[in-house]
C-alpha cells in the first residue's frame, strides 16, 4: 500500500478522526467509574463501525464548505469541552461528535446515509430520559415484588413490606441501582443494536426488544433475591460483591449470553439455514 497516496484521501482522515473521538469518549468514560455505561458504549461504537464498514462502498462523500465548517465547529466544541472531564457530557457528546463527522463526510444532504448510526447515538444521549421513565413506573417496587416471589417459590420464608424484602434473619431494601434500571437499559440497547445488524420484521423486532428488557429485569430480580439470602445468612462479604459493580456485571453478562442464544436460535440460525438451502438449490 502506498501510504503517501492514502494519506491524501479525505476518507482516511475522517476514519482517523472518528477513531480518535470514540477513544476520547471511552477514555473519559473509563475515568468516570461507570462500568455498565462503559460496556454499553463499547458495543455502540463497535456496532456503528460495523454498520459504516458494511456500506463503505456505497457512501457518498460530498460535503460543502458550510457543512464542513459546521461539522468541524461541532467537533471542536466537543474537544474543548473534553479539556475538563466535568465539561464532557458522556451521553450527549458522542451524538454531537457523530453529527459533526457526518457533516464533514457527506454534508447536510448526505446525513440520511448515517441515520442508523445517528439514531443509536441519539438513543444513547436520551438514555437518562429513558431511565427516568422506567423509574416513573415504580421499578424498585416491581423488583421487590418479583424478588419476593422468587424467594417464596424456592422455599424461603419471606415477605415484603414496601421496598423491603424480609426473611426471619435479615432484610434488604430495593433502592437505586438495585432497582434494575441499568441492566434493563443495557439489554434494551443490545436488542436495538441487534435489530440494526440483523434484518427482522416488525413483529420479530417487537419480540426481540421485549425479550431483552424482560431478561434484564429478571436477571436483577434474581440478583436481589440472592442478596436477600446472603443477608439472611450473615454473609456480608458475598453480599458486598453481588451488590457492587462486579456482581452486577456478572448478571449482566449472563443475561447478554442468554439473549444471544435466543437471537441465534430464533433468528440468526434460521436465516443461515435458509441461505444455505438456497445456495444448494442454485448449485444443483
Description:
With 284 residues, this protein is mostly helical. The protein has helices at 3-6, 10-31, 35-54, 65-81, 92-106, 115-125, 127-136, 139-153, 181-197, 202-232, 236-243, 245-283, and strands at residues 159-161, 164-167, 170-173. It has a 3-stranded antiparallel sheet, with helices on one face. Strand 2 (164-167) and strand 3 form a beta hairpin. Helix 5 packs antiparallel against helix 6 and helix 10 packs antiparallel against helix 11 (236-243). The longest helix is centred in the C-terminal third of the chain and has 39 residues, at 245-283.
Summarize the structure.
This protein is mainly α and 284 residues long. It is built from twelve helices and three strands.
Write the layout of secondary structure elements.
Elements: H1 3-6, H2 10-31, H3 35-54, H4 65-81, H5 92-106, H6 115-125, H7 127-136, H8 139-153, E1 159-161, E2 164-167, E3 170-173, H9 181-197, H10 202-232, H11 236-243, H12 245-283
Antiparallel strand pairs: 1-2, 2-3
Amino acid at each position: 500500500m502506498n501510504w503517501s497516496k492514502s494519506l491524501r484521501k479525505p476518507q482516511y482522515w475522517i476514519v482517523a478522526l472518528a477513531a480518535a473521538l470514540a477513544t476520547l469518549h471511552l477514555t473519559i468514560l473509563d475515568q468516570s467509574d461507570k462500568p455498565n455505561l462503559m460496556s454499553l458504549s463499547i458495543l455502540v461504537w463497535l456496532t456503528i463501525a460495523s454498520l459504516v464498514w458494511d456500506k463503505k462502498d456505497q457512501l457518498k462523500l460530498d460535503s460543502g464548505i458550510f457543512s464542513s465548517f459546521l461539522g468541524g465547529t461541532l467537533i471542536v466544541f466537543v474537544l474543548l469541552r473534553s479539556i475538563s472531564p466535568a465539561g464532557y457530557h458522556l451521553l450527549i457528546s458522542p451524538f454531537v461528535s457523530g453529527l459533526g463527522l457526518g457533516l464533514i463526510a457527506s454534508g447536510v444532504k448526505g446525513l440520511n446515509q448515517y441515520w442508523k448510526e445517528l439514531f443509536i447515538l441519539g438513543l444513547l444521549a436520551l438514555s437518562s430520559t429513558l431511565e427516568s421513565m422506567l423509574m416513573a413506573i415504580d421499578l424498585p417496587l416491581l423488583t421487590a415484588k418479583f424478588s419476593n416471589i422468587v424467594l417464596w417459590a424456592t422455599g424461603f420464608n419471606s415477605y415484603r413490606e414496601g421496598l423491603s424484602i424480609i426473611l426471619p434473619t435479615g432484610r434488604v431494601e430495593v433502592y437505586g441501582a438495585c432497582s434494575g434500571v441499568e441492566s434493563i437499559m443495557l439489554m434494551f440497547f443490545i436488542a436495538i443494536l441487534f435489530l440494526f445488524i440483523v434484518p427482522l420484521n416488525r413483529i420479530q423486532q417487537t419480540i426481540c426488544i421485549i425479550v431483552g428488557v424482560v431478561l434484564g429485569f429478571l436477571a436483577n430480580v434474581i440478583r436481589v433475591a440472592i442478596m436477600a439470602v446472603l443477608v439472611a445468612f450473615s454473609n456480608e462479604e458475598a453480599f458486598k460483591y453481588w451488590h457492587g459493580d462486579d456482581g452486577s456485571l456478572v448478571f449482566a453478562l449472563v443475561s447478554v449470553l442468554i439473549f444471544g442464544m435466543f437471537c441465534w436460535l430464533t433468528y440468526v440460525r434460521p436465516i443461515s439455514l435458509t441461505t444455505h438451502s438456497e445456495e444448494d438449490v442454485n448449485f444443483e
